[in-house]
Amino acid sequence: MPHCDIINYVCTNARKEMEECHMKISVVIAYHDEKQYIKDCLASLAEQTFQDFEVILVCDGCGAPEEGIPEKLNIVTVRQEEKGVAAARNAGIEKARGEYVLFLDADDYLAEETLEALAQKADGETLVYGPKTATWYSRKVYQDNGEELDEQNDTNDGSAEEKQTKRNPEDPYDFLVAHTKNWQNISALGLLVPRKLLMENQIRFCEELVYDADIPMLMEMLAKALKTAYQEKGIYIKRKHNDPINLPSLLQKKDAAKKVAEAMKSYRLASPFADRENAKVFHYRFAMCLVTMISPYMIESKAAEKKETAGELKQTLEILGKDGWAQISLKHHPRKLIAYGLAGDAAKIVKKTRNHARRQTLFRVCTSRAKCKRYLYEKVFSKMKMLDDMVIFESFFGKSYSDSPKYIFEYMNETYPGKYRYMWVNAGKKLNLPYPSKQMKRFSFKYFFYMARAKYIVFNGRQPQYFIKRKGNVFLETWHGTPLKKLVFDMEDVTTASPLYKEQFYIQTRSWDYLVAPNRFSEDVFRHAFMYDGKMLETGYPRNDILYCKDMEKRMREVKEELHLPQDKKIILYAPTWRDDEFYGHAKYKFTLQLDLAKMQKELGDEYIILLRTHYFIADVLDLSEYEGFAYNLSKYDDIARLYLISDVLITDYSSVFFDYANLRRPMLFFTYDLEKYRSVLRGFYIDVEEELPGPMLMTTEEVIGALQDIEKVVTDYRDKYTAFCDKYCAWEDGTAAKKVVEAVFSDKSNK
What we know:
Blueprint: E1 5-10, H1 15-20, E2 23-31, H2 35-46, E3 53-60, E4 75-80, H3 85-95, E5 98-105, E6 109-110, H4 114-120, E7 126-129, E8 132-135, H5 139-145, E9 149-150, H6 160-164, H7 172-178, E10 192-194, H8 195-200, H9 214-224, E11 227-230, E12 236-239, H10 256-270, H11 280-300, H12 303-317, H13 321-327, H14 332-343, H15 346-367, H16 369-379, E13 387-394, H17 403-415, E14 421-426, E15 438-441, H18 445-453, E16 454-459, E17 474-477, H19 501-509, E18 514-517, H20 520-529, E19 535-538, H21 552-562, E20 570-575, E21 583-585, E22 588-589, H22 597-604, E23 608-612, E24 631-633, H23 640-646, E25 649-652, H24 657-661, E26 668-671, H25 675-682, H26 689-692, E27 697-698, H27 701-709, H28 711-717, H29 719-729, H30 737-746
Parallel strand pairs: 2-3, 2-5, 3-4, 7-11, 8-12, 13-14, 13-16, 14-15, 16-17, 17-18, 18-19, 20-23, 20-25, 23-24, 25-26, 26-27
Antiparallel strand pairs: 1-4, 5-10, 6-12, 8-9, 21-22
Helix pairs in contact: 7-11, 9-10, 10-11, 10-12, 11-14, 11-15, 12-14, 14-15, 15-16, 16-18, 17-30, 21-23, 22-27
């Protein structure tokens, strides 16, 4: 064992006392500079209901964390040169003094009763295990939301029958091995292991392995443990990394060759400890690993690599022998692959895998209309001639004719009549377009046909994941607001979008040729939040051009007439954002109106009316029937900029609408009743709202009413702050953004 520098990092007792005392449990943490996770990890230990334990923090090639260290923990820090997680855990075993050892990764954490629950079944000889639960969230969000994904019950690599099978907690092989999601999820983490078992048998993690170091060790522990016990309350929480671009976990790293080689080596090392009768599940899991990991690699690898892998696979499979493999219940495809593997026939493995993939693809295409369209898009439409004069527009996923795409479209029609053909995406309802243009329903056959062939694409949101960027394509991304709330790679937790949101977003931004920035602040944020290094258009937002129109009074009258609003009353526009934690399920959002409209109508109804414009996610959840004549739900009104024009006062919270509204220099109120929760838990802000907002932050309906009744005082009190705000966020806006964007994109010689 290499020499390690041992340091008492935090300790409640003197070194001598610590050396002499006896601990029930030693928690070993391998730490490799996971600064963003270690705080949660240690906090979960500090809050354990069971306190008879020490923490062995092994710093693998890095210094000890400087922040987030709970004072109440007994922590011994071990420093070593960077040798990998297996060596770090082994170093922790050597320094552990507890009767039991539990391995905890620095990016994971424990439920508060875990150690107590596991210790209840610990008698010095029993290996105790409990469930593992996977989450994408920090402890705070996880605890508040109660969100969890049981890793053992997640969709795995096996058959449909296997996915329906319940794991048996009383069978450690079945529970810890068979029902893991994939081979690399077979883990020794979270188990309460008798230290005597490790020391007397010299059981250690395999330091030659990076991805699969746990597997041989776990199988040896199970084989040599005198007793095993399951504890359902001993919950280990495995934190999945939502940023595989910058902070990938081991499983997320792209290293197919090494992963394939390690899978086979770990199987060979672990097989001697797998009894043929009691550990059939272990061999079955490797067989499924063969199907899901090794066979695709054989297709993609070079000829020499194929031959080498096939030879190694033959040696690996021969460990159990043909008879042993025959005893494992497998379907035709994996059974054939094993037969070819035993024969060392790389060519047949590749052929079999390709044919299997083709049959599966054909089945999916023939049985799924959606997959059929995708297949035609990728294999047929994207190979057809590009339409160089075709421009596709989409605003808010086809839900409206609005935002910057609308104003770019109108400018192009007025400036270049007849030069381009236009296609608008709708969400199933025809859009009211003022110029000749075709429309197509999102995700229809027509949509896939033209998305594959149009040269120009103008969106204000993300394109589909499967979008293929063809040579000659020009993608103009306008986005849809100055960022107040943290975006994408600046977010710690992604609570409502796909957990793979960051990776997906990164892939999507690689297709953007241009990104519109409304101000210098936004440009800087977009660069790091989107990890975008393409062309940035410093133009302001085309959607704000209308706020500088010369015929504003005429347009205001027209909008009021269109919406059947009284011409003689002042208008309040209430435009709140949606809350990340207000949802019923995937893509099913809710909104609770906190403003007391009854009180507002009573106090303000003679002078004002109020227009409510919620986020498009929650446009359908408001019922204002009892406030007829005072409150109007215009959440589905396409163009919010036209509502800005007619409003005298804006009430909002954390929506970016106030950055746009500021162009009008009219008063704004901020109804921020849940400020602390939103700032600290849900998203976080880019700006200091207390210092920069150009209006008062109000917490109750009464405060809102009072501010509206004395609106002139608000204007006076916030005049200087408002001026500074406009200088920072509205400096690029002058009513010509659409013109600047079109000239930059459609006149760019590099696009010809």
